[in-house]
């Protein structure tokens, strides 16, 4: 018999507080214990589009759910309105859980929301989550780092607040200085992004993988090259949400696709040695 463990010292979720929590990349099993604890005690849960029903189903029955999701090209709440809503709910004396996909501080606008809370003197706690740029790639059999492949990695977004490709990125520095580049929200401008990297000296045949619905049962991984990435995405009808990874770590997937192995794929180290 496995001995029972003592109760974990969870912090008290007090009325009038906002907890900014990451729900992870999708698989409910990747939710942290602190996030689970918050779900079980929140009065109101303000959640994003990428938070799935299985995770929301962990909330206590009395919790009120408020959708605040953002999806590109579709009508969605404005970020300032969401931040003000958190302040409003907290001032009602409610325990407010702001539940976001991935990690709230990794391209999740959690910092913007926290600054609004500070401005209005609303107490808050941050609960990190597993970001899709790490957890999603791990489910695809692609390590973010491998000592025989890379000693640095860059995380970047494919579009700015305006919806355009960010104009503050030093494309040459990233292309030449980062062996592995992991991009969030990059599908819309993938052709332009790939061109900028190739113009900056990145090999046209550099390995690329696009991971959609990361960690979920319908996860799909497209392996391609920097030169063909945009056309292959169009050919296969791939749509967001997706992660894009550029770099030789993609070449390790034939050996490390553990999820594929569960479905019968034979893993092999042939051709993937450092």
UniProtKB/TrEMBL annotation:
It comes from the Bacteria. Keywords: Methyltransferase, Porphyrin biosynthesis, S-adenosyl-L-methionine, Transferase. InterPro entries: 4pyrrol_Mease, 4pyrrol_Methylase_sf, 4pyrrole_Mease_sub1, 4pyrrole_Mease_sub2, CobA/CysG_C, Siro_Cobalamin_biosynth, Uropor_MeTrfase_CS. GO terms for molecular function: uroporphyrin-III C-methyltransferase activity. Pathway: Porphyrin-containing compound metabolism; siroheme biosynthesis; precorrin-2 from uroporphyrinogen III: step 1/1. Its EC number is 2.1.1.107. Residues 18-229 form the Tetrapyrrole methylase domain. The keyword Ion transport does not apply. Pfam families: TP_methylase. CDD domains: SUMT. GO terms for biological process: methylation. PANTHER family: S-ADENOSYL-L-METHIONINE-DEPENDENT UROPORPHYRINOGEN III METHYLTRANSFERASE, CHLOROPLASTIC, SIROHEME SYNTHASE-RELATED. Belongs to the precorrin methyltransferase family. This is uroporphyrinogen-III C-methyltransferase.
